[in-house]
């Protein structure tokens, strides 16, 4: 027994959104890893151990993908969908700026813009698509923490 084409299409599109978010995040992580430069930076006392980042990001990227798909499935040409794409671009830009370009200052600007985009997405989806907003809430909290961490690292390691 085959699924109806609409249901099959929805499963494929959901899978594509999760693969895009998770696969893109993993690719960025592999191409912009924490290195000796990062290890040598002064960090605040609340800096988490490196091993915590992969499992946290895996869960977040899955939720980001599902939230994006929910909006795409129901409101493809909405402001919420545009903001979802914006936040994904900002998210994917942060690691290369921070870890590869060693631009803590520019990475801080990007992560703060990302935080604004996440809050905008939550606000845009809270009433019409509350599950999407709920899925973005842990992401928003993590990026708030990451912004504080980025800002602390910037203040402890001023530009020459």
Topology:
Layout lengths: L4 H27 L4 H5 L12 H22 L4 H22 L3 H22 L4 H27 L4
Helix pairs in contact: 1-3, 1-4, 3-6, 4-5, 5-6
Protein name: Tryptophan-rich sensory protein
Keywords: Membrane, Transmembrane, Transmembrane helix
Main location: membrane
Overall 3D shape? elongated
Kindly state the percentage of residues in helix.
over 70%
Order of helices and strands: HHHHHH
Strand content: under 5%
Summarize model confidence as the mean pLDDT.
Answer: 95
- Sequence stretches where pLDDT stays below 50 over 5 or more residues: none
Strands, count: 0
Please indicate the count of domains.
Answer: 1
* Rg over C-alpha atoms, rounded to the nearest angstrom: 17 Å
Summing up helix and strand content along with how strands pair, one would put the structural category as: mainly alpha
DSSP summary: helix tally:
6
The main sheet comes to: none
N→C terminal distance: 66 Å
Organism: Reyranella soli
Subcellular location: Membrane
Membrane topology: Multi-pass membrane protein
Family: Belongs to the TspO/BZRP family.
